[in-house]
Write a structure and sequence with these properties.
By secondary structure, this protein is mostly helical. It is built from 4 helices and no strands.
Amino acid sequence: MTHSPTPTELLALRTANAALMSPDSCYDFASTIVFALGSAQLLQSPETAAELARLRARVAELEAERHETNEVLSDAAEQLRADRDRIAGLEAERRTIAAARDAQIIAWLGKKSREYGTSNRENRAKAEAVARMADKLSRGAVRRPLEDPHDSPLHHTYRTGHDLPHCECPPSAGRHTSACPLRFTSEVPRG
């Protein structure tokens, strides 16, 4: 028994007292109390008690799992925020680098335009074309890519093993079957 009665125990005690006080009780003392507790649905079979204990354990397990999931999601959300801030910083840095690069190109085009001079018609046309290009670049009308995609460190022209389709032709066949995705290659399957 606990130090202080639980609400269920208090309810059972009140139900038992009310049953004993009833003047129309035709059963003995113990039977009256048991019947009163049963009609108040305060009695449980051992199977029901075991099922209740199992369900309470499962609820506790699911709540712990939910807390763990919430922590993982919170960590993931925090990482996404940090990544977003890092990307924003890198984008700002990229814009700064591009602006500095464009300023250098514009200065170089201006210098080149002045080098052509105005001595003859062909040089004036070249100087005007270069000056127009510098003007367009300074207004943002012409944008050079920051990196040529074929010069990227991530670019490769070869195919790696995980890029190639999988061949299940028997090596004893010596060639690819008609259903094989590699049937148009000259490569013979190897076990």
